[in-house]
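Q: Hi! First time doing this. I have a protein sequence and I read that you can turn it into a structure. Is that right? Here it is:
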Amino acid sequence: MRRLLLALPFALLPLANAHADDHDHDHAHGTLGAHEHGVAKLNVVLDGNTLELELDSPAMNLVGFEHAANSDADKAKVAAVRQQLEQPLKLFGLPAAAGCKEDQQELESPLFGDAPKADDDDEHEHGHQHSDIGAHYQLTCTNPDKLAQVDLAPLFKAFPATQKINVQLIGPNGQKGVETTPAKAAVAF
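A: Yes, that's right. Below is the predicted 3D structure, encoded as structure tokens:
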């Protein structure tokens, strides 16, 4: 599953650099941090009949907190979010005509009981733990030519604390980076 997505950062490097040059730096850090509340990242790759979606978001955007779920209420919230994430066809609006069906999925987060990644040194830099949630989906589409766009409106509606999703997309028409918001949630291939 990672085969296509591993190539993504390298394919998009020139795009990211070009985007950074003309990006207006009005946020506090001047660069898009790896962990910014309200902002998620989504990689979309369409290769033949295979559609891969990789969502990476601070837990704050999805569950409303980043600490370990100790209380029953927190545990229930984490379980509910996990259940939502297990249904990608409800979160990503794909044209029915494309006939996309889920093949594989992988959900990762310290909140789901996964061990934090070894390269996660946010804790040392900021003095507190940042928890991210990663969701990787692989779908097979019987009519990929009918896949004109991916609509992220259901994702924004499911997780209202997410204000922006930075999308990197590779498809039959090439690659692009798009910033989506609840008001502008569709990304064309």
